Amino acid sequence: MRLKLNLKTLGLALVAIVACAASYLIAADHIDSPAVTGTGSDITDVYAFQSPANANNIVFVVNVQGLLAPTATAAASFDEEVMIEINIDNSATKDNTEDLVIQAAFDNGKVKVYGPEAPIQKGVMSTLLKSSPIEASISAYGANPIIGESNGIKVFAGPRDDPFFFDLNQFKAIIGGTATSFNNPGTDAFAGTNVLALVIEVPKSMLGSGSINIWATSNREM
Fold it and tell me: N or C: which end of the chain has fewer CB within 10 A?
């Protein structure tokens, strides 16, 4: 399967593979063009952090199809024509070119995760890896999570509460000149909304040594 780039996240996360404190970096992008907003190719957030349960693992999270109301969440689904790709630059020079990729494809209620491996194709075009994938059933809204696991890699896909916090009204006030700072605590504009989440936990040993740059793309089948 050959795919073309549909959407690239705003932001680049730098994650240390070596043991670190419980810190993480995120990038958020909740409003895109009408062609992708609210679809399975609309990436809202990318997270990468050390597993709180296993210091030897890194957790990657890619959320799509944001701003889902609880009443709409049960009917939401991952797009079977969209492959989500986590791109990993582990080179010493950090040239922002993917050296490894983790790919997730969706089919018949399951997620199939490939990698991390060297990509078949780099840049704005992607080709699905040929290795055997790790599979997991997509968890239903309100049901217990279903976790797929093989070779030290864990996989989850399904709806979750949107974890990103942003005080949109206060942001507008700051931009409009009627406020100078955010409140503590603020008011979460995303409270009560959901996303479709892809969560992949990977041993650090599979990602090389040193630090990595990561970014995520959604790719629609040609």
Answer: C
- Each residue of 185-213: pLDDT tens digit? 999 998 999 999 999 999 999 999 889 99
Quote the domain boundaries for residue 140: 2-164+196-221
Establish if 8 belongs to a structural domain. yes
Q: Is residue 39 in some structural domain?
A: yes
Q: Which pLDDT belongs to residue 6? A: 38
- For the record, the structure tokens of 82 come out as 């969209």
Please report, as a single letter, which amino acid is at residue 55.
Answer: A
64, 219, 86, 100 alpha-carbon torsion, rounded to 10°:
170
Give how many domains the chain has, as a whole number. Answer: 1
- Map tokens 């070596």 to a residue: 18
Q: Global pTM?
A: 0.85
- Indicate the burial class of 93 (C-beta count within 10 angstroms; 0-12, 13-18, 19 or more): exposed
